[in-house]
Specification:
260 residues; mainly alpha; 2 domains; two-stranded antiparallel ribbon; 2% strand; elongated
Length: 260
């Protein structure tokens, strides 16, 4: 393939590595959840079967750890450092952009602000060594046989797909935040209204409560499929602002639509 970058890798090859490892990462995440919870959950940030953090992380490992391939201890140490730094940075950026926590290791020993923990950092290091020493050589040979023109068209199409999927996911996140804010506002208005009508008859208060419950259910029914998927994919979503409301909304959506 053509278009060689400064690291000695073809840029189109790296694009294929990103896609392949993003897909394999999605399989790993979804398979882990299946084993833990007994049912399928799409664990990707995107709607499609890809986890971009795995694709990006794998490309970084392939490029930066190439000089260490013959030294297993150093390769492992480098992989632990790189994957931990990437996971921490990703968690930090997502929290700053969306003002919510997307995963949380706070209940695990030797964690750093809940974004990374020693146990999973070791897992990532072991996985990276296995990937670089056994899996990647086969993938590299396979990718090298892809015709340049066909590969360019394929990656171009996938780039458009990733862009559309990313925009759709951002819309789902925005809709979810709007839903939470609307429910929060409804609850505030409810307290204010009940306080104003506390001297009303019991029948009038019951009618008021019934109306409020109906409005509450109407808001929950507005939750898009994308918003519901995000709740399933990221159980710790909402550990920042409105923590209790996020947990309650997640439970209500599970009751209404089920886990599967």
């Amino acid at each position: 393939m053509l278009i060689i970058n400064g690291y000695g890798f073809a840029s189109l090859d790296l694009a294929f590595y990103f896609v392949i490892y993003a897909f394999l990462g999605w399989i790993l995440e979804s398979g882990y959840t299946w084993a833990e919870e007994g049912h399928f959950v799409n664990r990707g940030f995107l709607n499609g079967p890809f986890c971009p953090i795995y694709g990006f992380g794998s490309v970084l490992l392939i490029i930066l750890l190439k000089p260490l391939l013959s030294n297993i201890p150093m390769l492992f140490a480098g992989a632990v450092i790189l994957t931990s730094a990437l996971e921490y940075a990703t968690g930090f950026v997502l929290e700053k952009i969306f003002h919510e926590k997307w995963w949380d290791y706070s209940n695990r020993r030797f964690n750093l602000q809940g974004r990374i923990c020693l146990r999973f950092s070791i897992y990532w290091g072991i996985g990276a060594v296995i990937m670089l020493k056994t899996i990647h050589p086969a993938i590299s040979r396979m990718v090298s046989k892809i015709p340049y023109d066909a590969g360019t068209v394929f990656i171009g199409g996938l780039a458009l797909y990733f862009t559309a999927d990313f925009i759709h996911t951002l819309r789902s996140v925005a809709q979810l935040r709007t839903l939470v804010e609307q429910i929060q506002l409804l609850r505030y208005e409810t307290r204010e209204t009940i306080e104003l009508f506390k001297e009303a008859s019991l029948e009038a208060l019951e009618e008021l409560r019934a109306d409020i419950r109906a409005r509450h259910e109407e808001l929950i029914a507005r939750a898009s499929s994308g918003s519901r998927r995000l709740f399933k994919a990221f159980p710790n979503l909402g550990l920042g602002q409105h923590e209790n409301l996020f947990r309650e909304l997640r439970e209500r959506l599970i009751q209404k639509y089920g886990e599967k």
